[in-house]
Every structure is written in structure tokens, then in C-alpha cells.
Amino acid sequence: MSELRKDPIIGRWVIVSVERAKRPSDFVVSVDWKEEKLCPFCPGHESERDDTELFIIKDFKKQNGWITRVVEDKYPILNFHGDIERIGEGMYDKMDNFGAHEIIIENSSHDKTLATMSIEEIYHVFWTYKQRFLALKDDKRFRHVIIVCNHGYGAGGQLKHPHSQLFATPIVPKSIMEEIEGTKEYYNYKERCIFCDIVREERRLKERLIINNSSMIAIAPFASRVPFETWILPVEHISSFENISEEGTMELAKVVKETFMRMEKILGDCPYNLFLHSSPFNKYLASEYHWHVEIMPRLTKLAGFEWGTGFYINPTPPEMAAEQLRTVAVNLYGG
């Protein structure tokens, strides 16, 4: 029978539709990239775009080579230049469209993915994330930073070249606030981190556990919103991603690569969204929070019921998804 499952962090309800249960072969979804005449992120095109470069890890094996680059988005949805002016119009609130919108070009190779990059290359991606978190944290106008990766046209991606986007905002996004409020409520009741309890429970039960090592785990969350939704969490309680160590970044890179290798083996190169959630900055820090990565494969579409009610309908139970991902054979160091 179908089940209603409640997300323990924010209280969101999900319908796990067992009667409609689908295995990986039931989903036929490709990334479906748009054709590109000229990739603006490939090496050699830097001067043509005249990007404002914010950060770079150079590849000294190649002349003018680089491993990752961070540039300002040429068409930002948030405007970095200016200041915050909060305005009230009667009962309505608004402010200037202030924030940071950056592009992290994850690799110099046009065709690589998180499944095909080396562990070292993925390490550089997440180390770059950390450096941008630290740089923006020093700007007291910002309260929060989130990383978003849209892979595939069906997930909102426009360019095939591996890249992600960083958004820094003067307000804490509603989805993050809901998580923070949930973690604080849980902590006030039990004096424990809810994410730490999730880590312990999933390691104990093992039925939704995909990858388990001493510092990171990957799980199919109990109230998964979409088929094969996956979370990666540090075992140690760390509220802010920018506090990750070099060793922790390398362990994260290993788990990220293995997760995407397993997904690609099961689902192919499907569209997905990746989010890196971290605590707000400075005086807005939520020490009860626990940074984590969420991966949302785009295998189904929301319809009227979902939009009208806020419920998600998931036709693949997370236990089934976790078993498929956990048992598929991959060679992490085999390329």
C-alpha cells in the first residue's frame, strides 16, 4: 500500500506510492542538452567573454591551463554592486535586488561529469566552493550562500560544460529557514542535532544507506521527494560548509564521485539538481544546523496535485532506490 511519510526536519509530507513503484528501467530520461556552436566555458574563450575572474586553480602542466575557475555571471539574477535598501509599501516589503551570482566552471574539459571526473578534480570543485564561501562570508551584507548545479536541460541546465552556480543573499532563503527552524525545535526538545540522529539511525538500519565511511555517508532520505533522491552528510557535526578540512573535502570528493558513478550505472546520464545547504553566516549562524548535499534526479514531473497541495508523489520507495544504488558494482579508482 502507499504510505504517507513525514520529513522529520521540516514536517513536509510525501506520498510513497508503492502501487506505482518504478524501477530504474521504467525511467527513460536523458539530459537532452541544447546544441552549442561555441562553449563560453572552454579554455581559450576567456578573453572573448571578458569575464570578471574571482578565483582560479591553475593547472601548471599546461600553458595558461586551469583546473577550476570562478567568474561573475554575465546575466546575474542578483546585483552585487550596490547596497541593501529595505522598503515598505504599506503592508508589503521589498528591497533592492542585491546579492552575488557566480559561475563555478568545475573543469576545463567540456564533457566531464561528476561521474567521470577524477577524485582529485572533484576535490578541487568542492575546495573552490569553500574558498568562495570564505570570501563572501567577509562581506557583512550577506547572510547566506547556496550552491546549485542544474545538470541537463530537463533540470534547468543551459550549457553542457560542467559548472555550478553560487548565490549569496542578504536574506536566508525560506527552504533553509524551514530546515533551521526544524533543527532548532528538535534540539530544544532532545538536545541533539537531528541530522546527527539521522546519520546514526541510517547507519543502524542500513536499508536506506548507500555509502558508508568513517566521515561521510550517502542515503536515500526517509521521505524522499523524487525517485533516487540522495543526501550526502558528514558524520561529524559541522554546521557551516566553509569549516570543512582538506581531509574532509577529499573524503567528500570520494563519496560524491562514487554516488554519481552509481547513479549513472543505474539511471544513465540523467538530469538532476544538486544543492549544497549550509548554515547562514556570522551572527545568523545556526550552530544546531548540519551542512549537507542534496541530489534530486529529474525523472518525474510535478503535476496539479503536487502544485496544489505541496505533497510530492514518489513512485520509487527510497529503500528500493538505496538497494539498487548500493548493490550496483562500480570501480571508484577505475576511471
Blueprint (SSEs and pairs):
Layout lengths: L2 E4 L6 E4 L29 H4 L3 E7 L5 E8 L13 E4 L2 E4 L4 E6 L13 H19 L6 E8 L11 E7 L4 H17 L3 H12 L3 E4 L3 E4 L10 E5 L11 H22 L4 E6 L14 E6 L6 H6 L2 E3 L3 H10 L8
Helix pairs in contact: 2-5
Family: Belongs to the galactose-1-phosphate uridylyltransferase type 1 family.
EC number: 2.7.7.12
GO biological process, one term: galactose metabolic process
Report what the structure shows.
The protein is of the alpha+beta class. A ten-stranded antiparallel beta sheet has the order 3-4-7-9-8-13-14-12-11-10, sandwiched between helices. It has a three-stranded mixed beta sheet with strand order 1-2-15, with no helix packed on it. It has helices at residues 46-49, 119-137, 174-190, 194-205, 246-267, 304-309, 318-327, and strands at residues 3-6, 13-16, 53-59, 65-72, 86-89, 92-95, 100-105, 144-151, 163-169, 209-212, 216-219, 230-234, 272-277, 292-297, 312-314. It has a single domain, classed as 2-Layer Sandwich (HIT family, subunit A), CATH 3.30.428.10. The mean pLDDT is 90. It has seven helices and 15 strands. Strand 1 (3-6) and strand 2 (13-16) form a beta hairpin.
